[in-house]
Specification:
- The protein is built from 15 helices and no strands.
- By secondary structure, the chain is an all-alpha fold.
- It has one domain.
């Protein structure tokens, strides 16, 4: 089995840079196709909207860390919130390496240093991701049933809206009503990996609480995206009110699609392409392209700033630990 897996792994490592290049080419072609509209549009960068977007994005991350910490507690692990915050942001930047697996690996190693069992951390990350992705389903269903459609894909997918909404509802219902299935799946995976099984019992109440918290996080991020979009060009109050529901729903849908792609760093180009498909009929191709690229850049900037701030805060809280670590390294 390992002899087969090794060539496959090497092959995947070889083609990952190709996907990154293709993602960059796609973005370049998208910019080129919209260049006429982009060059003729009146752009701005409103500091008030930018600040609001930043605060909402950071708030979404704080909710996200709480969500992961609660998932960890459900599986028998415990971290103080400051420790969870430090671990989260210490590992967040490696998500841009193709594969979407490096951040979970980093979190597992750092949590182990805090005495959390590897199995609990791995299980909590899987539970967190499952909840985060499944929480997009009710958002998408509500959007499609009320104010939205499939954007540029409406001619092909519009007739299937009812079926897709029903499948989304069924998926969320099964997730909530059969919590034992998730623990069973996690234990099966741990057994296959030669790890001890989790001795934890999830309940419907646990999963419902996690789902509601995930919805709050998506609300923060969707609103952050909307605020950034409104800060890039002049919109009237009526235009903003009309665009807001589409922006709130398109961001989590595009984020989930990008995450599930697994082929580019943090869904690069996949997320932007999905946003374009949903929002171009609402905002226009040019403004959608700029907003999609701007939220990516803004997220990376804030991740670096917040990760650095959390690192400095951690050192200030634990000066003795930092000195001991330095002495240990110098002794080596």
């Amino acid at each position: 089995m390992s002899a087969v897996a090794s060539p496959l792994r090497r092959g995947w490592q070889l083609i990952q840079p190709l996907f990154l290049v293709l993602a960059l080419v796609f973005i370049a072609l998208l910019l080129r196709s919209q260049w006429g509209e982009l060059s003729g549009h009146t752009w701005r960068l409103h500091p008030g909207w930018l600040a609001l977007s930043g605060l909402l994005m950071i708030g979404g991350w704080c909710v996200e860390v709480w969500l992961w910490r609660f998932a960890l507690a459900c599986l028998g692990g415990y971290l103080a919130y400051p420790d969870a915050l430090r671990i989260w942001f210490a590992s967040i930047l490696v998500r841009y390496i193709p594969g979407n697996v490096w951040q979970p690996l980093g979190m597992t190693v750092l949590a182990r240093q805090q005495g959390v069992q590897v199995e609990a951390t791995v299980g909590s990350i899987a539970l967190f991701q499952a909840v985060n992705l499944l929480s997009v389903l009710p958002i998408a269903a509500f959007y499609l049933l009320t104010v939205g459609d499939f954007g540029l894909l409406e001619p092909w997918l519009g007739a299937a809206t009812g079926w897709l909404v029903a499948l989304a509802g069924l998926g969320v219902a099964l997730f909530l009503l059969r919590p034992g299935w998730l623990i069973g799946l996690l234990n099966w995976a741990l057994t296959k990996a030669g790890r001890p099984r989790l001795r934890a019992a999830l309940t419907t109440r646990h999963l419902l609480a996690l789902l509601l918290v995930a919805l709050l996080a998506w609300l923060c991020w969707g609103t952050s995206f909307a605020a950034l979009t409104f800060g890039l060009a002049a919109y009237t109050a009526g235009e903003m009110a009309a665009a807001l529901p589409h922006l709130l729903a398109a961001f989590p849908i595009a984020y989930a699609v990008g995450y599930l792609s697994f082929i580019t760093p943090s869904g690069l180009a996949v997320r932007e392409g999905t946003l374009y498909l949903f929002l171009a009929p609402v905002l226009g191709g040019g403004p959608t392209t700029v907003a999609a690229l701007a939220i990516r850049l803004w997220q990376v900037i804030l991740e670096v700033v917040v990760a650095g701030a959390v690192g400095l805060w951690t050192r200030a809280r634990n000066p003795q630990r930092s000195r001991l670590s330095q002495l240990s390294k110098s002794g080596e």
